[in-house]
Each structure stands twice: as structure tokens, then as C-alpha cells.
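Example 5.3 — 4-hydroxythreonine-4-phosphate dehydrogenase PdxA
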Amino acid sequence: MRSNPLPLAITPGDPCGIGPEIIARAWCQAPEATRACFVAGDVGLMRRAMALVQSSPTFPVCEIATPQDALSVPPGCLPVLQVVPVAPVLPWGQVDARAGQLAGEAVLWATRAALRGEVAGLVTAPLHKEALHAAGAPYDQYPGHTELLQAQAALHAGVPLAQMPVRMMLANDELRTVLVSIHVSLREALDAITAERVLQTLRITHASLSGVLGRAPRMAVAGVNPHAGEGGLFGREEIDILQPALAQASTEGMNVHGPFAPDTVFMRARRKADGQREFDVVIAMYHDQGLIPVKYLGVEQGVNVTLGLPLVRTSPDHGTAMDLAGKGQADASSMVQAIRMARQLASGGH
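Solution (predicted C-alpha cells):
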């Protein structure tokens, strides 16, 4: 065991969005969650963000020199490591290439620090994809956080991108779901449902959640078609693709069940009032199938987790909310949950 704990790095996201504000608010509202965390970004930006969430300067933003310094800052202080050039004051709520570059540089620094074992993991505030693209190379080649992290992890490991498969898990207190495909059209998503890809999703989920739960997760697989195909009457994907993938997963020792009717499986996996649930996670076949149930239960509590990386990465389940930026009204609940989940994942669930 490491005698010295590692801090969590939190990246500010787009500096023109609500990311800096929800980080500052998380420090004010949940000091127990933000202990041993620091912001990898710009000191001036975080001071402006802190000014949005408090009326008097009673909660200082302090600059630190190394990640380890975050472990020794006094309570009631937000530590910031200046990992980007000192940023200009950018207007809240506007798409700006300079903001995209600052956001991208912060994520790149934090990702490399995590891969080097200097931080326990990273929590990423929301990026604005248009601003990131406007920043130019190398950031314009990444649609968002996941792709940037995946590329850096593959580079660090010295393997092709295809050998660093990742999956997105969305989770809140009541439900976890992992997606077979993410941001593609529904037509493309159906083509992406192959036995190999479903089995890969099960392997990644099994490995990731085993560490958190301390046991093999009980995984439920949602069907593709209504009623999970009704024995082939409504489509054969369950018979030809899902059942072979589940059979192989079972032979590998995974606790996997299904395929189940998509309209009921999420209810079976939802945590009940007594804390029990039939399944620990649902493997959903495409984006909306998996995310609608979780978001309906409360988007303000949702956390996005990237599974399959050799590092811990979580993020609030919302965007930059440019219309709210700078108004001091942003809700930090999802950010606080993302920090708590990152800490849980970094400690192996213990």
C-alpha cells in the first residue's frame, strides 16, 4: 500500500462555462468531499469563480507548487496548481478558442499526471466541443474528453488506439448503466451491436466494477428489440448476437444475465429503499436506451465514468451551460458526486 495518499486533480473545463463555478461551489458546500483535491488549471480563473459563490473573501484560493501540496493546505482553502499559462480574463457564457485551449491543456496535463502516477485520478468539469475544436491542433482532433484520454492512455502504453477500448458508465445513487456504443446515429448504433463488442463491454465493466464492489458485479444485459425480441418474432439480435456473447462471458466467470426486455430491466437494477438491487449494472445497447432511465432519476446527481482506462476519470453529467455561466446559479451536486465517485474508484471501493 502507498503510505502517502495521492490527491485528485480536478480540471476546470471550459473557463467560459459553469465548470469553474461548480468546482468553487463544491469546495464551499462539501469540504469533506474535496479534501485532498486540487484544481489543475488557472489561479485567476478560480478566484473569479470563487467570487461568484460567496459574498465575502472568506474562502481563499491558494496557489500550490506540486500536486502533493494539496494534501497539506489548511481546511477552507481551494488549492490550484497553475498548469497552463496565466489566462486572460475571458467573458462568461461565450464560445472562445482561447477557452478551448486552456481547457484542453488542463486536461492534457492532468491525464499525463495520472498516467505517471502523480495523482489518484481526475475529475473533469465540462468542455465545450466547439471551443475545443476552435483551439486547433491537437485539440481539434478530439470530440471531447473521452477521446483525448483514450489517445493519451494508448500513447503512454505504447499500443494502438484499438487496443485501448473504453466504455461510458453513467451512474447515480440508484442506477448504473454502461453503453455498448456512445455518440453515433441510431442506425450506426445498431450496426455496432456485435457479439465481440458486447463481450468487450462486459469484460471492461466486470473488471472495473469488481474493484469497486469487492466482488463480481451482477450484470444485466438489455435486449435490442421490444420484449428482447420475443423469441425471434421481433428481431434476431438477441438470439444471434447477445446470447452467444453472454454464454462466452459466463464461461469466463462473469456474473451476467439476460438479455432482458429493455423496458423493465432498468427497474430491476434500480436500488430500492432498503438498499438492495437485483443487478449492479445494466449493459445498454445504445446511448438513449441507457441514459434516459438514469437521467430521469435525476440528472443533477448523475456521474459520467470512463471505464477501460488505466486511470480514474469521472465527470458531472451535464454540459457547460453557457446560459448560466457567470450568474452564480449553477448547481454543484453532480460535481460533488463525481468527486466522491472518483475517490471511491481510486481507493478500489474501500
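Remark. The CA atoms of residues 269 and 278 lie 5 Å apart.
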